Amino acid sequence: MPRLITIGETMMMLTPEHAEPLATAAKLSLHPGGAESNVASHAAHLGVSSAWVSVLGDDVLGHRIRTSIELHGVDVQWATNDPDATTGVYFKDPGHGVLYYRRDSAASRMSPSTVASVPLEQAEIVHLSGITPALSLSCADLVEAVFERVATNTALLSFDVNYRPSLWQAGAAAPALLALANRADIVFVGLDEAQSLWGCVTPEDVRAILPDTGRLIVKDGDVGATEFNAGTQVFEPAIPTEVIEAVGAGDAFAAGYLSAALRGNPTAVRLRAGHERARLVLLSTSDFTADPSPTQSSLT
């Protein structure tokens, strides 16, 4: 059984081979791109048995994504292909954000039935993000079903707020994401998105509105990350990095942190492991970059 199960949409990502804008890029590379599959892939490379659950189109892009993620060592037995829908696509435009083409994607059809046969109860951590409930009403139902199932067993529910303004307005997202985050065991949130959603200015402000979360990790870009846990507060500074592209770094941070947590590492080591993993992505135009060395010192 996988120790970590992640659930969510993955699309085909097209990104310039070099760190240049789409307007002038001559060559593009294709890679899978999705918050939850990114977490599973990074965790698998860190030696954590991981599975990813989703729905893809029954098309060449969907099959390529499934194969690519499996090659990272991720269990994809619960990733299915819908013959009546297509796989979403998005473009990275370095320095200018991301362009999404995901309307009516196969993943937007996910529902509670998507996880009906997935043994969530046997995992140690189940990981979701705030992207999924914004995709469709059936996806929101899926998230609710996962929260309810995990709450009745010993698995921990990990939730990355991952607010995407392109999917829903802050007025709708703020209360929905706050309610979900307050029910999770582990929550990741960027201070910038907490400010956009809830008007938070400091990590302490975030803790004040998320008092029920067991472990709350507030990320503050190149400043560092703070974990609140059982009355304690620990800050770990970020690793100075010349950023090529920031998209995907949050997923890498979550994977590094969760992998360290599954190894029983203390708070400072968990946060440092997150920073180390995120740094690999910040130095690349891809959402996923394998560890250049065979081990991560923070995880030993």
- Main-sheet strand order equals 5-4-1-8-9-10-11-12-13
Instruction: Write down the secondary-structure element order.
Output: EEEHEHEEEEHHEHEHHEEEHH
Main sheet summary: 9 strands, mixed
The averaged pLDDT comes out at: 91
With helices defined by DSSP (H or I, 4 residues minimum), what is the helix count?
Answer: 9
Low-confidence segments, given as residue ranges, are 292-300
Task: Report the end-to-end length measured between terminal Cα atoms.
Answer: 22 Å
How many whole angstroms does the radius of gyration measure? 18 Å
Number of domains: 1
Q: In the CATH hierarchy, what is the class? A: Alpha Beta
Q: Estimate percent helicity.
A: 25-40%
Structural class: alpha/beta
The CATH architecture name reads 3-Layer(aba) Sandwich
What is the fold-level CATH name, i.e. the topology? Answer: UDP-N-acetylmuramoyl-L-alanine:D-glutamate ligase
Structure description:
Helices cover 33% and strands 24% of the residues. It has 300 residues and is an alpha/beta fold. The protein has a single domain, classed as UDP-N-acetylmuramoyl-L-alanine:D-glutamate ligase. A 9-stranded mixed sheet has the order 5-4-1-8-9-10-11-12-13, sandwiched between helices. α5 (170-181) links the parallel β9 and β10. It is globular, with a radius of gyration of 18 Å. The chain starts with a strand and ends in an 18-residue tail after the last helix. Residues 2-287 form the Carbohydrate kinase PfkB domain. Keywords: Kinase, Transferase.
